[in-house]
Amino acid sequence: MNNGMSSILICGYLPAPTQELSEYLGMHYSTCSCNDVGQALKLLDEEPVDLILAQHQQTGFDALTFLNRARISHPEVVRVLAGSLSREEMTEAINKAAVYQFLPEVWPVELVELMVRRSLENRELGYRYRHLNREFKIAEDVLKKYNEQIESSIEDSHQFDKLVYCSRSMASLCNMAKKASKTNLPILIQGPTGTGKELMARAIHHNSDRSRQPLMVHNCGGMSDELLHSELFGHKKGAFTGAVSDRLGLLPAADGGTVFLDEIGDVSPTFQVSLLRFLQEGEVKPLGSDKIIHCDVRVIAATNQPLTQLIQEGKFREDLYYRLNGFQLNIPPLSERPDDIEVLTEYLAKRYAHSIGRKILGVAPDVIKQFQLHNWPGNVRELENEIKRMVAMTDNGSFVSPEDLSEPIRSLKAKPTETVETLTLDGMTLKEKIEQMEIKIISKTLQRCRWNQSQTARELGLSRVGLSNKIKRYGIHADVVAGVQG
Asked: CATH topology of 7-132 equal to that of 430-485?
């Protein structure tokens, strides 16, 4: 019925006014008509309808009964009532049918179309208002109880909003994020899929001076420039096919707050220019409009692709990269922070069990051991899905046990390690054997830290100068590291 346009159901009008309204409104909307209450209700069930325009008693159509029932069955539909009504009928229409607007019995079609347009625009604004306030709907007592439960389950870990960790690398990263949250600089979050980039963005917003203003989230991946521009900057009615009313973009809607743009590396070079102008000037120009809107928004962008590589390939603007890179936060994959697996497992298991009304005693130690053997290519998201499935299979009052592990993880075996009993000199002196082990440990740590010598030195408990001297002394370089890893 609607073909992508807003749809209107016309009820209760005589044939001539019905035809006139259908023809005039049909230039902008999809229309249909009906003069039987039962058929009209059936039509609401079968077709998407955005607005009902009903005339009371003109053709014997009981518009009040119809609108009362439509309010219950389809509360999202805008209801408009026309005709001569008594005071009692108007009171009933307001209280029982929640009629949005009343029209005279005879009204020019131009004014009817204006009223219809305003009604649909207000419905769109209502949707935006609900979207903006979604972040603030949790009651304070529920939030307090939730926080108390979480704090008791992670006594030996740390938490930054909903990010849970105990590893040194995540502690350092979250400390930097807390400092970044107190500024208005743009933030670029990089990390593999599933590491919690959106959680990091939300934590930064909630710990910033903008926390009382909205946080708007948008995934830029796989969207055309036109749709991206419409979503972020807004559009005017008629700007493109299907733009039947003005739309407020996320950037103007978040004025004073924060916008999180995920998968920023996927946007086209053309859209990058528009985003760069916004970051430079704070200006938004909706599609189809010649009016420039100024808004104060902090941008947090995220990507699972290294933007420096995209710059080298000519797919990402270097000037936009430096605009986004006020602070850069690189979230390491879960395989590089195995210390976090245990606290994340306990936290996620308790949270999910609580959400489904399941009481568990905890997670068996053997489950944690098996988790630490897995490299988690899907990172925290993969871990969370595994835990949810296991909790769902666990009986009330029981531990989450190894029997509930998925087959790929349950079948993992620990790699044999050298022990004091098996360690031999193999014809070398003790000094030579110690040096060989030192080379191996330093090489593996460099590889894991991607040759970040400062991070490597911290992990090994060395000064940066001390590490540099050992690298030179042993002649460690990328080829040697690759050989050691192989």
From this structure: no
Contact 54, 11 (CB under 8 A): yes
Would you state the CATH architecture of domain 7-132? 3-Layer(aba) Sandwich (3.40)
Every domain of the chain and the residues it spans: 7-132, 140-166+333-415, 196-331, 430-485
- The DSSP code sequence of 268-305 is -HHHHHHHHHHHHH-EE--BT----EE---EEEEEESS
Burial class (CB in 10 A: 0-12, 13-18, 19+), 283: middle
Beta strands in 306-450 (DSSP E): 327-330, 360-363, 398-400
Residues 467 and 335: their CA atoms lie apart, in Å, by 24
Q: Which residue has the higher pLDDT, 469 or 131?
A: 469
Give the H/E segment covering residue 122. Answer: helix 109-132
Q: How far apart are CA 287 and CA 240, in angstroms?
A: 8
Q: Does 196-331 carry CATH code 3.40.50.300? A: yes
Would strands 7-11 and 51-55 be described as parallel, antiparallel, or unpaired?
A: parallel
Please give the average per-residue pLDDT across 13-41, as a whole number: 88
Please tell me the distance from the alpha carbon of residue 232 to that of residue 251, in angstroms, as a whole number.
Answer: 5
Q: Which helix (H) or strand (E) holds 215?
A: strand 215-219
Query: How distant is the alpha carbon of residue 234 from its chain centre?
Result: 19
CA 430 centroid distance within chain: 56
Contact assessment for residue 153 and residue 352, using Cβ atoms and an 8 Å cutoff: no
Residues 318-347 have pLDDT tens digits of: 999 999 999 999 999 999 999 899 999 999
8 vs 53: CA distance, rounded Å: 7
* CATH class of residue range 140-166+333-415: mainly alpha
Checking DSSP bridges between strand 293-294 and strand 283-284, what pairing results, if any?
antiparallel
Q: What is the pTM of this model?
A: 0.56
* CB-based burial label for 305 (10 Å; 0-12, 13-18, 19+): middle
> Where would I find the beta strands (DSSP E) of 62-132?
78-82, 101-103
| The CATH number of the domain covering residues in 430-485 | 1.10.10
